[in-house]
Amino acid sequence: MPITPTLSVARSTLPLLGLAIVVCCFFFQATPVLGQDPNVDSLMAQGWKLLETGAVTDMEQHFRKALAMAPRHPEAHAGLGIALLRQGRIKSSLESLLVAHLLKSKYRNLDLEIGRVCYLIKAYRKGVLHLEQFIKANPNAWEGYEVLGLCHFELHNYEQCISMLTNEVLQREGKHADMYDYY
């Protein structure tokens, strides 16, 4: 016997369907991204400038304001994650950095920062994955080799540890020097 919907079933599911549509529309609404809102662009530029001065509390506020205007802005999530990491707020930092990663942030050092956090929380295998991605994109940045070497040490991969730390020393000595910037 085939199942046929009754009017009472349709009436009880319609409000749920409507609510689901409203939630989806709200969550996936178009939000400003870099280049569309001069206020967001200004806050972003000021936030990255504050990183250079070490004013991470002010930096955090700039990125939070940018996120209030553009909640799906990947670079604002990355900046907030960096500010929180510099303040020692590891769990919150990781959340923001992973959101930036999911939103396809173009922040050059995102995988390095996620790798650092993974090392701090002892998620060494996950750290290795992000740090290898960072080194692939930035082969002359010694910081990636350093943290990757430390992750390999904790995983008892001593040959890889020595190899990474040797590369770190070579990069620091300028054998393959590259300008290293934060953005």
The radius of gyration computed from the alpha-carbon positions, rounded to a whole number of angstroms, is 22 Å
Share in β-strands: under 5%
Q: Based on Cα principal axes, name the global outline.
A: elongated
The unreliable regions are 3-35, 176-183
Quick check: average pLDDT? 81
Distance from first to last alpha carbon: 65 Å
Fraction of residues in H or I helices: over 70%
What does this structure look like?
The chain has 183 residues and is mainly alpha-helical. Helix content is 71%, strand content 0%. It is built from nine helices and no strands. The radius of gyration is 22 Å and the shape is elongated. It starts with 6 loop residues before the first helix and ends in an 11-residue tail after the last helix.
